[in-house]
Amino acid sequence: MLEGIKIEVYKANQELAKNGLVTLRWGNISAKDENTGYIVIKPRRTASALLRPDDLIVCDMDGKILEGTHAPTSDLFTHLEIYKAFPQVMSVAHTHSKWATVFAQAGKSIPNLGTAHADYFKYDIPVTRTMRPEEIAKDYEKNTGRIIADAFTLKDPMTTPAVLVKSHGPFVWGQSIHETVDNAVALEYVAEMAFYTLRLNTDTDMNTYLIEKHVQRKQGGRNEQ
Amino acid sequence: MLEGIKIEVYKANQELAKNGLVTLRWGNISAKDENTGYIVIKPRRTASALLRPDDLIVCDMDGKILEGTHAPTSDLFTHLEIYKAFPQVMSVAHTHSKWATVFAQAGKSIPNLGTAHADYFKYDIPVTRTMRPEEIAKDYEKNTGRIIADAFTLKDPMTTPAVLVKSHGPFVWGQSIHETVDNAVALEYVAEMAFYTLRLNTDTDMNTYLIEKHVQRKQGGRNEQ
Amino acid sequence: MLEGIKIEVYKANQELAKNGLVTLRWGNISAKDENTGYIVIKPRRTASALLRPDDLIVCDMDGKILEGTHAPTSDLFTHLEIYKAFPQVMSVAHTHSKWATVFAQAGKSIPNLGTAHADYFKYDIPVTRTMRPEEIAKDYEKNTGRIIADAFTLKDPMTTPAVLVKSHGPFVWGQSIHETVDNAVALEYVAEMAFYTLRLNTDTDMNTYLIEKHVQRKQGGRNEQ
Amino acid sequence: MLEGIKIEVYKANQELAKNGLVTLRWGNISAKDENTGYIVIKPRRTASALLRPDDLIVCDMDGKILEGTHAPTSDLFTHLEIYKAFPQVMSVAHTHSKWATVFAQAGKSIPNLGTAHADYFKYDIPVTRTMRPEEIAKDYEKNTGRIIADAFTLKDPMTTPAVLVKSHGPFVWGQSIHETVDNAVALEYVAEMAFYTLRLNTDTDMNTYLIEKHVQRKQGGRNEQ
């Protein structure tokens, strides 16, 4: 079932690892089939390097497993909440990529300090609120997805397709698997640059006209250099 | 047309990527043919890894496309302004290399703190002024080239062949394609070292006699070690 | 003798190097055979890249060499003290991996600031006390093992399977060779992130409920993503 | 002439590059033949990646070329001064390796903060004094060697086989080519760790007993792990 998407998700997992965003077994990517609305996602406890397309799991939006012999990643219910909250999202990735996770651990959003950021993300990358004890105790992964949705009540999730889960790490999405991988790579790159930019100049800021220009330039194709 | 230059520009694109200066599709390099004055440049939306010599575009100094089936990079008009302002320049590269971009985002020039810098760049690497709203709204890429030229009204662009466009990233040039790639690699390396040098010692400074010596030593060949 | 374990230890040495945790000849890993209680460990003065399974040494818990033509690593007696103090430990690794060593040199423990840490280590990674002159003068390596054991008098060494030897570097352990390599990789990764997190936000802290959740989630399999 | 040494110096040049210590054409290594006292050194303007054993130059201690069709590296006279000042030195390397150069540019010595440092270098790595204008104007490279020798008037150059030339970069040496490459790799590694250690704890210090222990342990073999 959904063999084409499985191969794409499989390749995207390799891409995340190849771009240095995944260490050990930390990280997973999923995609939504536009016809059935089913989700293809990585099984639990599998290093990306060992994953094969047949190992991928197909489930519905309630998390019911439709195909696959392994258990899905424990982050499945976070992915599902993101798909439910943001209907335009066709793919979701979760990594512990270093610099995005540093901002997540610090509980700080990633400020938009340059055109590289604006080419992919219109606003600062938001950080979720602290989870309440009862949200952690029960339905932890689902509640992680809900606080992600909460972080976008005032923002369009498609113009700024990433979030930092506090004390945890980034989730990234896009309108395609390919775009989601690109957004994950771009997020890590702009996070690192933002960190060092703030060390050099705590007062630096980006011209809002310049942000608008680069957000517009990407229409019809991301970062058209 | 200009097949030899196309192969060189093609290879230079690979070199930029191999040296870690290009991520995703961020970055481009062009060259000027000394006989015709035509420019060879990368098409838009092409990862360096996918580029082939035949994909390159030939245009004249006004940006009129003479050969090529793709649209040129949106940065074409910035490249053209640099060629117009600095007639000795035979090649231009634009990257979002990490450390040079950090200085660009911080709006800070890269100070000349060591012989590695002086072997390639006589002065601090300047940062352009903030663009005005009307410069961003219309002819943005052309105006980016103009503020680059403005940054060199008091400096010889050939002894310090690089600039940081504020909130954006570096542009680098040279008297040949090979020299331009070298300058882009050197810029990133000295930017990183300058960043950390300032963290260790905010008062550090380089002997101007030593700068002169290394600027002279490179006559007849860059960094003759 | 113990050929199967030798091959595993040999491969684990390669894994440490491949993950960037070992430079030059700095680093070694050992394993305990559950039947005999014998230890398999790396010989002295051998770069991991040159090591072959047959070069590995077998000794008993008193350090008596049972097999092997080379001398064992000088760190052997530190490994043995860890096995004696923590009976559940089946494998021990010592590296000078960069970020863990930075914390060791600074004499600072690595704080638990995110789920990536909690997935592998329940508590902060402790740092040993300063060694006394007489502990350095005689039985230095054995005493290094003893101050490691001292650092766990109030902590379960299996829920936080790593320590920083002050002014020196990390020792890491686990219930298997594979788990020990994973713990060494995870330690270095969380050490780097902790360093930068503290630079961004010196007051950051992790919800203890979240730590407990991730410590529990790993039961039955580490970091089940 | 000296074909065996040429092959070793050739390989050592590759090793420096492979260990990330050499970028572009920055860096060179030489060796002294114990029978003739002749020096084998890299030619000028050659990237390590392009160098072949036959390209290497043989000269005497006065810099008179005995064999070789290329000009020697402009740093030749610095190498020669080091061989003259420190008779036990059999090989010298010069790089612009990043972290050692950061300390050189900051004009700061690299403090001995851990056993990794003490395993290779007994004392802090010294930084040379500022050169006087007349030392730069005439015989610059020779004078660079002289201020290196000056930095060791109170220190044994063999127990601390490296120096930082202020505003420039490191020179490293050893009793063999192999040892010199190891020292260059170790220098860069301990420089980076010292930088970050000081960021975490500006008051950190290493037990002098521990330094002595590790200096002694290396007798008969460097870092006998």
From TrEMBL, chains A, B, C, D:
<protein>
    <recommendedName>
        <fullName>L-ribulose-5-phosphate 4-epimerase</fullName>
        <ecNumber>5.1.3.4</ecNumber>
    </recommendedName>
</protein>
<dbReference type="InterPro" id="IPR036409">
    <property type="entry name" value="Aldolase_II/adducin_N_sf"/>
</dbReference>
<keyword id="KW-0862">Zinc</keyword>
<dbReference type="GO" id="GO:0046872">
    <property type="term" value="F:metal ion binding"/>
</dbReference>
<dbReference type="GO" id="GO:0019323">
    <property type="term" value="P:pentose catabolic process"/>
</dbReference>
<dbReference type="Pfam" id="PF00596">
    <property type="entry name" value="Aldolase_II"/>
</dbReference>
<dbReference type="InterPro" id="IPR001303">
    <property type="entry name" value="Aldolase_II/adducin_N"/>
</dbReference>
<keyword id="KW-0413">Isomerase</keyword>
<feature type="domain" description="Class II aldolase/adducin N-terminal">
    <location>
        <begin position="7"/>
        <end position="195"/>
    </location>
</feature>
<comment type="similarity">
    <text>Belongs to the aldolase class II family. AraD/FucA subfamily.</text>
</comment>
<dbReference type="GO" id="GO:0005829">
    <property type="term" value="C:cytosol"/>
</dbReference>
<keyword id="KW-0479">Metal-binding</keyword>
<dbReference type="GO" id="GO:0016832">
    <property type="term" value="F:aldehyde-lyase activity"/>
</dbReference>
<dbReference type="GO" id="GO:0008742">
    <property type="term" value="F:L-ribulose-phosphate 4-epimerase activity"/>
</dbReference>
<dbReference type="InterPro" id="IPR050197">
    <property type="entry name" value="Aldolase_class_II_sugar_metab"/>
</dbReference>
